[in-house]
Specification:
mainly beta
Length: about 500
């Protein structure tokens, strides 16, 4: 007879309450004047509706408001109630054009919160007060957040921020309030030549913390990479100091790494001790993997640890911006639901449309390919999708046609960097995806130098309004407990 722990997905009586069900996403649709019709629905990874969808119709004047437009948190002045959230087109606009920018790829990363809004799995979406927004918002320092590689179904529920020689724990989604904890780890570093932390990653499986330091937060090329391993899990310690007080090994190495802006440096710590470093560079991206395994007598220079030289992005590029144009535009990191693949990415066009990125195996970051989507308007964020994929990026008109998305996925068992990477993807015709021959809808991409150009996938869903409609995707803050429909994250681990 099954016991309770097995029914709940535990092993040996252990249940990790951070584990969520498969990813959900929200979809906003409205009329062109945003006065007569709007809907908000939440879908699961199978494009089935969950939660409590809601919609509203009203008079043709903004004096008659409904749904979320009646929420005072939307904007206290009410001046922006008539602004078109759905139909406004994101092209080259930045964060200050909030009615467009919420469609930017910079809106979301692996953390459960988004910049301009929050939405529960029940379909309750609310916006922040845009009236006060400026570049000192949380995301000005969001680049200091640690990139996590976590077990299956888990997103970061604690937010550690690393800057200079200090690590701080902040409340998730808010860098402006008081720190929860602070620790100066200067004495734990083996070399203090560089004092500006500019990218940090953590792997919960091997308890490895890897951070990059430079001489400034600008374009200085000198880098010191510090590798720490502890007997304590950073996500479980009461105080940050507990992690560093229980270090089992510490090493460092140095290199000269060219960056437009050090705040774009992004770190993905693999399960095998190899670490992927990626960042925006010019209009493209750069990536390389280094052996950060401890105790192998690899020395203190990066040449002995590097898998191959720095790889330049292999897809199409055009004018696009990153942290060099503002700290809030830092390079993003996300992972698949099962934690087997990661993505380091930035926009293809200006501040948020399209996609330039690297996807890498989180078991072995030496296995990586570039991904590319060349839209210059009508973008959407990119989110985790299914067990081992991502999707997003599409906000074109759904009048007389289905809403589409760019969906692709990987083989979760494929971590061999000496072989090609199989990418599965959708299409505009179901008969093309589920074929009448023995051919799979997928393609093999050459490791390191290969690029996958995203393809549209028809979803079968309408956009939210029968006529002109430009749907917008939304991040969901809690996908629900694994195996049930609970919409509330309890904040505990389970032992």
């Amino acid at each position: 007879m099954a016991n309770l722990s097995s029914l709940l997905g535990g092993s040996g009586g252990t249940v990790d309450h951070r584990k969520e069900g498969l990813p959900l996403f929200g979809l906003w649709g409205d009329t062109g004047d945003q006065n007569t019709h709007m809907t908000f629905r939440v879908f699961d990874s199978g494009m089935k509706m969950v939660g409590s969808p809601w919609g509203a119709v009203c008079n043709s004047t903004t004096n008659y408001r409904f749904g979320i437009l009646g929420d005072a948190s939307f904007a206290y002045s009410q001046d922006d109630f008539g602004t078109d959230l759905g139909h406004d087109n994101l092209t080259s606009e930045g964060y200050s054009d909030w009615s467009k920018y919420w469609k930017s790829v910079y809106q979301c990363d692996q953390y459960p919160h988004a910049q301009y809004y929050t939405s529960s799995r029940d379909g309750f979406i609310t916006f922040n007060n845009f009236h006060h927004y400026d570049s000192t918002f949380e995301y000005d320092n969001g680049w200091t957040k640690i990139n996590h590689v976590l077990p299956e179904g888990i997103r970061p529920r604690r937010m550690f921020c690393n800057r200079r020689n200090s690590m701080r724990e902040m409340m998730v989604g808010n860098n402006s309030c008081a720190a929860v904890d602070h620790y100066d780890y200067t004495s734990n570093k083996l070399d203090n030549t560089h004092t500006y932390a500019c990218g940090t990653g953590y792997n919960e499986k091997n308890k490895m913390l890897v951070m990059v330091h430079s001489a400034d937060e600008g374009s200085n090329t000198g880098k010191t990479i510090h590798v720490f391993q502890s007997s304590k899990d950073l996500n479980k310690v009461t105080k940050i100091k507990d992690y560093f007080d229980n270090l089992t090994a510490t090493e460092y190495f140095t290199g000269t790494w060219t960056t437009d802006n050090n705040r774009d440096m992004t770190v993905a710590v693999g399960n095998n001790g190899w670490v992927g470093f990626g960042h925006k560079n010019g209009n493209g991206m750069r990536y390389s993997a280094f052996n950060c395994n401890l105790g192998q007598s690899l020395g203190t220079t990066d040449t002995a640890r590097q898998y191959i030289g720095w790889q330049d992005f292999n897809g199409s590029t055009t004018t696009s911006y990153g942290a060099n144009q503002g700290a809030q535009y830092y390079t993003k990191f996300n992972t698949t639901w099962d934690g087997t693949w990661g993505m380091i990415y930035a926009p293809y066009y200006y501040y948020g449309v399209g996609l330039n990125g690297w996807c890498m195996s989180l078991e072995n970051p030496r296995k990586f390919i570039s991904v590319n989507q060349t839209k210059s308007s009508r973008g959407n964020p990119y989110l985790a999708w299914g067990r081992t994929g991502f999707h997003g990026g599409w906000s074109d008109n759904t009048d007389s046609q289905q809403w589409r998305t760019y969906a692709w996925s990987f083989d979760p068992t494929d971590s061999d960097h000496t072989t090609t990477t199989t990418v599965y993807y959708g299409g505009t015709d179901n008969n093309d995806v589920i074929r009448n021959d023995n051919t799979n809808r997928g393609t093999d991409i050459t490791n390191k130098t290969g690029n996958f150009s995203l393809e549209e996938s028809r979803t079968g869903m309408h956009g939210g309004y029968y006529s002109t409609c430009y749907p917008v995707m939304a991040q969901i803050d809690w996908w629900g407990n694994y195996g049930n429909a609970d919409s509330n994250y309890g904040g505990n681990f389970g032992e």
